[in-house]
Design goal:
Structural class of chain A: alpha/beta
Number of strands of chain A: 13
Radius of gyration of chain A: 21 Å
CATH topology of the largest domain in chain A: Rossmann fold
Oligomer: homodimer
Number of helices of chain A: 11
Largest sheet of chain A: 5 strands, mixed
Strand content of chain A: 15-25%
CATH superfamily of the largest domain in chain A: Diphthamide synthesis DPH1/DPH2 domain 2
Largest interface: A-B, 49 and 49 residues
């Protein structure tokens, strides 16, 4: 069964990336120039999220105008879906390394983080979302792109009579109220409803999977829509995948080598306890890289969103570590829950 | 226009990988065990070429039987197409790192190269190929998999009355008579015909592109066929691609970060001389990683086989450095030639 756009149900690929509004961003070239001068840098690396790579050569060209000819600028061509996903090879090679669009996870003197706050108005969409909220208690969360408006959001909701609950979450999250694709601790507050303000469904669906006890209302200022997040198709798919893996006799245990996604202890424990489980190290986890391995199923200890969102495209069942424990009979199916990342690395 | 197997003409993808005969390999577990003991290793990394990844977990399981429980074995999930393509992350992490199926390009005390020589008989196919050779002078080349039979091949040809010309090539090549996908120096000998012994068309087509003045006869003992390599479809495609790029105003210059594919000087020279050319660093060069970049064409300073063989699948023209010089008018179209790699890195 396919949806009209060719995606199978539950396939979130690119849902958060295809934006209807083209936004203007502040690349903070002055701050980059300062860092280059402070470090006396001759090699500057730039890393952009997938959705902004099309702007990357223009940003590089603008930067080149600011510098002498003896400065080399290189753009990372590696896929980038978060601050957990630093291009380590380019980072090593660079005197100054600029990471755009994500808030810091690893701090280093030579890394400059440029947040790229959205300039989309959020007041009208929150106004619409308020009609969907029962209140009076509501949790408020958003993404790095809209953090600069977080206080405004709180004020608007309080002015409308809501008790707004916010939380910083653990050290993986830079800001109060921020969510990541793999971490929704900022919604661990005493409110039955969560208002998510931001573009796309990637984050609110993760949020709804991680907090099935809460109702997640999406206020999307980019696509101008208000909607309740429905994690059901995903959850059904997770149950189906776990069931499919219950007969597996051999396992590939994927250890992701991205700096913010290495869960070595979890991967190692699985292979030490199961002689039919083999460790596979990999940077970018894609279906074609898994196709040659002669195992019945995979456990992915890297990004949980690869597992839940891209998993159906893999040639064999792809499970989170928690789902693996269910599949081999160590835990009950009722214990199935969303896989999250805590800490930095 | 598609060929029966769904490939477009000139698309060599996987032609050398899909083997009709299933071969047995000697993984030399004893030699690995010796290295592990000599290094007192607790972490062993294994890297297999794409076509042998399906055997990787079985090899890991066999190795685990030889060791105590305190030794961890990890398999590289990264794509691997040659000795130029070492998994540096896993190499760093490993006390002993085993690379299967390619002859050494980087020597290091902790790297063990296991050649995986083919056990396929070569005498009958050379017998057939001899009928196609004019003689008396013939160059003889083969791949790493068949190097253990090279002397037999020479003897068989000499016994049939040929003057056999062999050469070691430059330091990128380990053995006399060996070819790589990017280096055919071993065919630089005074003979108008080259006999290539080995499976698939990947190597002989590169050879024919690099040596258009010679006739390349393929003796394929794996698929049991003798054929003359025809590089024409490729050459036409290269001309078409260069033409398509002649109007390009902006360029992405890809620097491959694989250890044996970094041609930094070439990439840097291009971006320094062309203000509309921007440096993009990348490990695995694939069409989907290039799709977001807003440039008119790309120059690939990494593996030339990505350019010639996979290039047609890219969203924009993908040129070798030499082709780029033609496209921007620095060289004449008649100077078009196959891009080769020399030295190691």
């Amino acid at each position: 069964m396919s949806e009209p756009d060719g995606r199978t149900p539950g396939d979130l690929t690119r849902t958060g990336m295809a934006l209807k509004h083209d936004r203007e961003w502040d690349y903070e070239l002055d701050r980059i120039k300062e860092a280059v001068e402070a470090h006396d840098a001759t090699f500057v690396g730039l890393q952009f999220p997938e959705g902004l790579k099309r702007r990357s050569t223009a940003v590089a060209a603008d930067l080149e105008q600011l510098f002498d000819d003896d400065i080399t600028i290189a753009i990372s061509g590696e896929p980038c879906y978060g601050a957990c996903d630093l291009d380590l090879d380019l980072l090593r090679r660079s005197d100054v390394f600029v990471h755009f669009g994500h808030s810091p996870m690893k701090e280093s003197d030579k890394i400059v983080y440029i947040p790229l706050f959205s300039n989309v108005e959020i007041e009208p969409i929150i106004e619409s979302a308020i009609e969907e909220l029962s209140g009076p208690d509501v949790a408020l969360v958003t993404t790095a792109q809209h953090m600069n408006r977080f206080e405004e959001m709180v004020d608007q909701l309080e002015d409308a009579g809501f008790r707004v609950h916010t939380r910083r979450g653990d050290e993986r999250l830079t800001h109060t109220g921020q969510v990541l694709g793999c971490n929704y601790e900022s919604a661990d507050v005493p409110a039955p409803e969560v208002l998510y303000v931001g573009g796309g469904k990637f984050h609110p669906l993760g949020l709804a999977m991680d907090h099935p006890e809460k109702e997640v209302i999406i206020a999307d200022p980019v696509n101008n829509l208000v909607e309740v997040a429905d994690p059901e198709p995903f959850l059904r798919q997770r149950y189906a995948t776990v069931h499919a893996a219950m007969d597996a006799e051999s396992w590939g245990v994927i250890l992701c080598t991205k700096i913010g996604q290495r869960r070595w202890d979890i991967a190692n424990e699985i292979v030490k306890r199961n002689e039919n489980a083999h460790l596979i190290t990999l940077n970018e986890i894609t279906p074609d890289r898994m196709q040659h391995f002669n195992v019945d199923a995979f456990v992915n200890t890297g990004c949980p969103r690869i597992t839940t969102d891209d998993g159906p495209r893999f040639p064999k069942p792809l499970l989170t570590p928690g789902e693996y424990e269910i599949a081999i009979g160590n835990r009950d199916l009722a214990e199935l829950q969303f896989d999250t990342f805590h800490g930095t690395w």
